[in-house]
Amino acid sequence: MFNKILIANRGEIACRVIKTARKMGITTVAVYSDADRQALHVQMADEAVHIGPPPANQSYIVIDKVMEAVKASGAQAVHPGYGFLSENAKFAQALEAAGVAFVGPPVGAIEKMGDKITSKKIAQEAGVSTVPGYMGLIEDAEDAVKISNQVGYPVMIKASAGGGGKGMRIAWNDDEAREGFQSSKNEAANSFGDDRIFIEKFVTQPRHIEIQVLCDTHGNGIYLGERECSIQRRNQKVVEEAPSPFLDEATRKAMGEQAVALAQAVGYASAGTVEFIVDGDKNFYFLEMNTRLQVEHPVTELITGVDLVEQMIRVANGEKLSITQDDVTLTGWAIENRLYAEDPYRGFLPSIGRLTRYRPPAEIAAGPLLEQKTWQGDAPAGEMAVRNDTGVYEGGEISMYYDPMIAKLCTWAPTRAEAIEKMRVALDSFEVEGIGHNLPFLSAVMDHPKFVSGEMTTAFIAEEYPDGFEGVDLPEAELRRIAAACAAMHRVAEIRRARVSGRMDNHERKVGSDWNAHLQGHSFDLKIDADQDGATVLFEDGEGLRVSGQWTPGDQLAEMTVADAPLILKVGKVSGGFRIRTRGADIKVHIRTPRQAELARKMPEKLPPDTSKMLLCPMPGLMVKLDVAVGDEVQEGQALCTIEAMKMENILRAERKGTVTKVNADAGDSLAVDDVIMEFE
């Protein structure tokens, strides 16, 4: 076995590989850019080597710099993680020439299957059903328009190299094909150093289901079930689960056997993923093969008990697979939510900055992976598991240079319904402050009827949130539970304030039992009857709710029990009450005395400032293109400028017709959130 492995990556996947290597007794080497000097993967590794400036195309994807780090460290093998150089055949060749093992497939398999155009042709030759499209190289935007018309709109414009939603656009007409081609080409060049683009038919109402394969160098190959990855935004997966709630055993077997046959046809060895698009009749079509470890691999590990990183390392060391297809058993259900530094209230635009608070829920080992110890934490085993794969820590920075992923939160349980409920609790318990993040949106998805029923497609987010995400309006029954909890908490805080030392004699303040709770447009008059074990909150209509739990004034997380059901609240302070976040809702809860409530109802509503005639920068980023000038008349939907953030290009468009009167930024300028880019009349 190898004595030392270098991880040619960063963030959570580098940390993930380090955990398994540590379990196997292998010394680890991290590489890092200037932006990652204090990163978690650098702290966790046994050694660390600096490889360049923050941009990935000057550090993490520069083969020569990584090879210098390999040589300097004396590493015998390199694990590439995902993204960056993980599917770069030239990198694998460089390692082979240097006598260093690549913890991934052979160069030939990478070349054949890592390139989406080549893999499509091979799949077609092997008799695998594929989505219609144009597999040749596309010269320019007009060529893209011509091909798109031949294939038939809508089409998917995709980068031949890489993945993760980078370099991908859906076009419904000629204008979108021109625009999408150029943006995809730019993103592909910046993210993967390869700007080749191809076009295929976009299948509407599809499910995205992928098969995990594992092959060795001795001709053995198995599949480890499937992952449902249909909930995506901008072609980037957000929620994954294993198994799929849609597949039956016969379809699973057919897809698995086809995936293994395809892998073995190209001499594949290592962990890999064959992605399929599946229609409502369970017809499946080959999309592509990812010749690397997938981001969502933990859900497969949780239901099979197989440590995929360990298997990759053993295969790279020349070992035979220790398990056969008959040994593979899918046990229970696992769900993964990707926590991104993206603000759902700003159209999911990237958010960067310092994590002033980062407190994930406690990790609990349970299920098939209990004995594998592939994640940190010594919590006792239970009937449900919680796993959090991350590469950040409290006080760390979320950089504009890399992918916005903060963590991958996973839960496992014997059934899908239990895994979903465990995920709801885990999301409510996850504390993240300092940046915008998608925790509220993830919570909303876990409660959405279409997700709960398992009847989602890749159009889920576009169909269910067509106007973006604006938070969740909770049902009245849930608002009553929150009101009761907050009233009891407010009373505790008031008692503490009433007992402050140094008060004047004969001026003791009495804390009453009658209160009013106002939240999400609802107003509840209530009375609190407290005792040593909690409080009974009696509403005006006679309903009584028993409240108990663990909360002390100043705590930012309240773990309450209301009406014999758990209620977990993230708690912030606002004047006269709390800012409460739970189940995807962000609520101001005002707790007032009856007299205060009466006066509050007479107060005029404070209106936000008028920014309707301004284009505000929705995220920190770099202006890469300015499409208009002062005096130009713009139409609704017209492109105004392009902002690049976290390797993604974002085109800002006019919301209505108008004339540009002032432009405050130009190409090359760095912009902060809410900077005024231009003004209109």
Summarize the structure.
Its EC number is 6.4.1.3. Pathway: Metabolic intermediate metabolism; propanoyl-CoA degradation; succinyl-CoA from propanoyl-CoA: step 1/3. The chain has 681 residues and is α+β, with helices and mostly antiparallel strands.
What is the fold's blueprint, element by element?
Layout: E1 4-7, H1 11-23, E2 27-33, H2 40-44, E3 47-52, H3 63-73, E4 77-79, H4 89-97, E5 101-102, H5 107-114, H6 116-125, E6 133-134, H7 141-151, E7 155-159, E8 168-171, H8 174-192, E9 197-201, E10 207-215, E11 221-233, E12 236-242, H9 249-265, E13 270-278, E14 284-290, H10 297-304, H11 308-316, E15 333-340, E16 342-343, E17 349-350, E18 353-354, E19 357-359, E20 385-390, E21 397-398, E22 405-413, H12 416-429, E23 431-433, H13 439-447, H14 449-453, H15 460-464, H16 476-498, E24 514-519, E25 522-531, E26 534-539, E27 544-550, E28 557-562, E29 565-574, E30 577-582, E31 585-592, H17 594-600, E32 614-616, E33 621-626, E34 633-634, E35 639-645, E36 648-653, E37 658-663, E38 670-671, E39 676-680
Parallel strand pairs: 1-2, 1-4, 2-3, 4-5
Antiparallel strand pairs: 6-9, 7-8, 7-9, 10-11, 10-13, 11-12, 12-15, 13-14, 15-22, 16-17, 18-21, 19-23, 20-22, 24-25, 24-31, 25-26, 26-27, 27-28, 28-29, 29-30, 30-31, 32-39, 33-35, 33-38, 34-37, 35-36, 37-39
Helix pairs in contact: 4-5, 5-6, 7-8, 12-13
Number of domains: 5
From the 3D coordinates, which CATH architecture of the largest domain would you assign?
2-Layer Sandwich
CATH class of the largest domain: Alpha Beta
Structural class: alpha+beta
Radius of gyration: 27 Å
Strand order in the largest sheet: 14-13-10-11-12-15-22-20
Low-confidence stretches: 371-381
Largest sheet: 8 strands, antiparallel
- Classify the helix fraction into a percent range: 25-40%
Task: Name the CATH superfamily assignment of the largest domain.
Answer: ATP-grasp fold, B domain
Please report the number of helical segments: 17
Catalytic activity: propanoyl-CoA + hydrogencarbonate + ATP = (S)-methylmalonyl-CoA + ADP + phosphate + H(+)
Pathway: Metabolic intermediate metabolism; propanoyl-CoA degradation; succinyl-CoA from propanoyl-CoA: step 1/3
GO molecular function, one term: ATP binding
EC number: 6.4.1.3
